[in-house]
Design a protein that fits this description.
Blueprint: H1 10-19, H2 38-43, H3 49-65, H4 88-101, H5 116-119, E1 123-127, H6 153-157, E2 163-167, H7 180-187, E3 192-195, H8 219-227
Parallel strand pairs: 1-2, 1-3
Helix pairs in contact: 7-8
């Protein structure tokens, strides 16, 4: 709120946050936290002790539910180790979540889904800056998994029984340098073309907004060339 000029000081921000029902701060260290000014706000009468207790109660209730105050033997989380990371069960759950969270906006003539049995012997082209670049597939605040666990569109489509060709066209989402010849060479003889476009954290993140909703750089041109 201070950065957006809603308040002028950390003290004012702490008071406004408490009054609005906020009880947790994403801090930037221990020295300049907004909520470190809560004792001063309480002493000045800007907030009441009862309000402070009301804000703190859900925090400790959550910590109790997580077992933070229980003996380790009573807390199931204490038995977890690195074997749980990227386990087959968790990877299968991630795959299920990905499949169920896709949003299909249009499906002319029932083109999707692409089934392995229908792609046998077909020529498939996958193009675009998001086709085979693991780095750009993750959004802001996303974890960075091991590369061997990342399935780019190209890697996933290569599991089909098809002859897959690939062309990035441009190497990064801003797509300032575009190779039309590279894309044309990949899609020229293809039966199916998959175009992978977007923005990613190179173009927009927290505190970095786009000026418009157009595809960055030459991406629209890449799309038009791919579907001609």
């Amino acid at each position: 709120m201070l950065g957006h000029h809603y308040t002028r000081t950390f003290l004012e921000t702490a008071v406004a946050s408490m009054n609005a029902g906020c009880n947790l701060e994403l801090s930037y260290g221990m020295r300049n936290n907004v909520f470190m000014h809560i004792p001063q706000a309480l002493a000045m009468g800007n907030i009441t002790l009862q309000m402070l207790r009301d804000r703190v109660r859900p925090l400790f209730y959550t910590r109790m539910r997580l077992g933070e105050f229980d003996p380790p033997a009573m807390n199931p989380y204490s038995t977890l180790d690195l074997s749980a990371v990227q386990s087959p069960e968790h990877r299968n759950l991630s795959l299920e979540a990905a499949v169920k969270s896709f949003v299909l906006l249009k499906n002319v003539r029932g083109t999707l889904p692409l089934r392995a049995r229908d792609m046998a012997g077909k020529r498939l082209a996958v193009v675009g800056p998001f086709a085979d670049n693991p780095r750009v597939l993750f959004g802001d605040y996303a974890p960075v998994p091991e590369p061997r666990y990342i399935y780019t569109p190209r890697r996933g489509l290569e599991t089909l029984m098809a002859n897959v060709s690939f062309a990035a066209g441009c190497r990064e989402p801003r797509c300032q340098q575009y190779s039309r010849a590279e894309v044309a060479g990949a899609v020229g003889a293809a039966d199916v073309v998959v175009v992978c476009l977007g923005t990613g954290t190179d173009v927009e993140t927290e505190a970095k907004d786009r000026r418009d909703l157009s595809l960055p750089g030459h991406q629209l041109e890449l799309l038009q060339d791919a579907v001609q």
